[in-house]
Amino acid sequence: MRALNGFGRLVLGTLLAGVLVAALLLPAAVGIGSATNAVADAVDNAQADPLDGQVPLRTTITDSTGATVATLWKQNRVWVPLASISDYLQKAVVAMEDRRFYAHTGVDWKGTVRALLRNSQTSGTQGGSTLTQQYVKNYLYLVNAKTEAEKADAIATTPIRKLREAKLALQLEQTHTKAEVLEGYLNLVAFGPSQYGAEAASEWFFGTSADKLSLAQAALLAGMVNNPPKYNPLDESHVEDSRTRRNLVLDVMASTGAVSKEAADEAKQQDLGLNPQRIPNGCVNADNSAVNGYFCQYVLDYLRNAGFDNDTVASSGWTVKATMDPKVTESAKAAATQQVDPTKAETTRIANTVAVVGKGEPRKVLALVANRPYGLDTSQGQTVQRLPTTFAPLGSGSTFKIFTAAAAMADGYGTNYVMQTPAQVSSPLAPGRVFKNATQYPDSMTLAQALATSPNTGFINLEGDVGLQKVADMSVALGLKGYSLDAGDVDPSFAGAGTDYAAQVVAQKIVSFTLGVSPVSPLELSNVGATLASDGKWCPPTPVDTITDRDDKLVTWTAAACEQAVPAELARTLAVAMEGDFTGNGTAATAAKGAGWNWTAAGKTGTTQEYRSSAFLGFTPEMSASVVLWDSEPRPQGICKDPIRTCSTDEALNGNGVGGGGVPAVTWMNTMKPLKDGQPNTFFAPASPQYITGSANTQVPDVRRKNIDDAKAQLTAAGFKVEVATRQNGGAAQNIVLDQSAFPTAAPGATIIITVSAG
C-alpha cells in the first residue's frame, strides 16, 4: 500500500470498500482480481481463529491457611463478571471507543468504510473499529498468538486484517449478547502497562475493586485504553497526559448523555484518585519473599516436574494451595537466623538451612527456610540459591550413619549388636587409608550406643561388613532419591560418568560415604526422618496441597507412589535407638538440655572432617526436620564457634569447629520447641525384639570355659568361622576357652577367635 501513489491508494481503497460487504457476507470463492482474492483468503482464514482459548489469568500461591504467598502472571488479569465492573467504566469505555456499540451488529459499516478509504489515501492508518472488533484484535494478540510472528500478524495495520477482524466480529455477535461482548472486552484489554482487565487495573492504580470505581477513576481508566504507556498516571512524565485524557473522557460522556455535565465537571476537579496497590510478580518480588521465597520457588520447581511449566502456571488463573505451615515457617526462620546472622561480615558466607516435613501420606513439606534471606540483594546476605532443596555440596557428616545402621538391621543385625570401636581402622575397600575417631571411645559398644555417640571406626567396619552397595541403596530407599539421578547432577566432578550417583558411590569405592561426605539435599534428608517416623514408608515430599482452576475445579497431577522402604518393625526399632542422641552422652544431649527439650524425639548429628559443614536430623512422632549448616560460597572455608564465623581449617581443627551438636542441633531445638510447647508428649511405636537382638545368624554363643572341641562345634553350628589362639599360664586346664573375640553378636559368618589355655 505504501508503494502506491495517492491516486492508486484511492482506487484500491474504493475497490476494497466496494467488495467489503460481498467479502464478509458471500462465500470466499468470490473473486475480483488479486485484491479480492486476498480479502477472500483473509475472511476464510478467520474461520481458523476461534475465540475460545483460555484468557491468561494470574495465579495465586497460598500457604496452608489460604494467605497469599505469591502471585504469578504473564498478563496481570483477574476475570470478573460484568456486574462486578463499575457502571461508570462501562459507560466511559462505550462513549470513548464505540458510542454506537448497542446499535451495530459487530461492525460499524460507516466507520469501517471511512477508515478503509482514508487509510488507502494516506500512508497512516485510522481506526473505525467497534468494541467488538477491538475485542477480536486483542483476543488474537493476547490469547491466540503464541509466537512473535503471530503477535505481529494479529496487530498488522492492513485493510485485509481489518476485514478479517470484521468477519470475526460479526460471527461473535451472532453467538454472544452485547453484555457478554462488553464483559469480555473489559476483562481482556490493557488498561495500563502489563495491567489487563478492569479488576487488575482497578487494584493496581486505585487499590480498589472494579465495582467500586468512582466516576473520575473510571474515566481515567477508560482513557488509558487508547495508549496505556502514554496515559499511565504512575509515570511522572505522563501525569498531565493522563489528566487531560481523563477530562476528555468526562466531556465525551457528558456529550453523549452517559453522565450529566455537572457530574462530569465535578469529577474533572478531583485529583487522579491514585492509591497504587502494585501486585508483585513472582517469588522474588512477593511480599515476605525473604522468608517464603525458598518455598515459593520449590512449588514452581515441583509443578514443573509435574508437567506444568512456569508460563502455564502464570497464565492459568489457578489457586495453588501450598502445604507451607506459617507457624512452622516462622519458628524455623527465627531459629536459623538467631544462630547465624547473615548480615554480619563474619557469617555472610554461611548458610543455615531448615527443612521440615510431616509424616504419613501425602508427605507434606511444612517449611523451607534459611538464615540467608531469599532475594537479589547480596549486600543484605540475600541469595536465590535453592538452599533448602538442592544438593548442599559439602555433605551432612555422620547423619549418614543412619543408612549404615538401617542396612545392617535389614541384614539381620540388631541394635544390641556389639561393634568394635578402635581408635583407628582401615577398610579393605581403601587400602592404606586410615579412619580415626574424633574423640576417645570404649573398645566396643552396641549399635544403639554408637548411633548416639557416633564413633567413625565402628561404622566404617560395619559398612565393610554389610557392603557399600547395600548402604548406598538404603540411602536411596529411605529418602535420598536424588542419588538416583545422573551422578553429575549431584556432584559435578562425576559429570559424564554415565550412571546414577549411588552407583558411583560403589564404583568409586567411596568408603567415607557412611561418614556423610556426599552432597545432600536438606529436604531429602528431612524426609529420611519422616520415612522412619512413618513406619518405614517413604513418600514423595510435596509442597502442594491442592490446585484449583479458574472454574473452581480441582487440577490433578501424577506424583510418585509411596514405597515401603524398610519393614515397619525395623523403622520403629531404629527410631527408638536414635532417641539416645538426645540423652546421656548423646551428641545432641547438650543442645537438648540447653533448650529445655522434654519430648520424645530421635536424631543424629553430623560433622564433616574440616568443619566446612555440619548437620542435625531429628524427628518426633509428628514431623521431621533437618538442619544443614555449610559455607555456601565458592572455595568453602571452615566454620568456627563462639562466635560462629568463617575461619581457616587449622583454626577449626584446633578445637574451634562447629559440630552437628552445636549450631545445627540448637537450631533444630529452637525450631521444634515452640511447636511442642503446651503439647502432651507422644511416643514412637515400641521397638521390635527381632531388631533389638538381631537375627539368629548374628548371635554368638558364649563358649568361654568350654572345651576347645565343643566350642568350635558350637560356633560352627551357629554359622561362624573359628580361629584358635593360645595363651600360656591362663589359669585353666589345657584346651579350655579363656576368651572369645566377639560376644554376644557378630556379623553373619564372621570369624570368631577363641583363646584357649595352653595349660
Beta-strand percentage range: 5-15%
Number of E-state strands: 23
Secondary structure category: alpha+beta
User: Widest sheet: strand order?
Assistant: 13-7-6-18-17-16
Assign an overall shape.
elongated
Secondary structure: helix percent: 40-55%
Unreliable residue stretches: 1-17, 25-36
For the largest beta-sheet, the strand count, sense and barrel status come to: 6 strands, mixed
Structural Rg: 37 Å
Number of helices: 28
Q: What is the arithmetic mean of pLDDT? A: 91
Q: Span from first to last CA?
A: 120 Å
Per-chain topology:
Elements: H1 6-25, H2 33-45, E1 59-62, E2 68-72, H3 87-97, H4 109-121, H5 131-144, H6 148-154, H7 159-175, H8 178-188, E3 190-192, E4 195-196, H9 198-206, H10 215-224, H11 239-255, H12 261-268, H13 289-305, H14 310-315, E5 319-322, H15 326-339, E6 350-358, E7 363-370, H16 401-410, E8 418-420, E9 424-427, E10 430-436, E11 444-446, H17 447-453, H18 456-466, H19 468-478, H20 487-490, H21 501-507, H22 522-533, E12 537-538, E13 541-542, E14 544-548, E15 563-564, H23 568-578, H24 589-595, E16 602-607, E17 613-619, E18 623-631, E19 638-640, E20 645-647, H25 649-656, H26 663-676, H27 689-693, H28 708-717, E21 721-727, E22 737-740, E23 751-757
Parallel strand pairs: 1-5, 7-13, 21-23
Antiparallel strand pairs: 1-2, 3-4, 5-14, 6-7, 6-18, 8-11, 9-10, 12-15, 16-17, 17-18, 19-20, 22-23
Helix pairs in contact: 1-2, 1-4, 1-7, 2-7, 3-10, 3-11, 5-6, 5-7, 5-8, 10-11, 11-12, 15-26, 16-18, 16-19, 19-21, 24-26
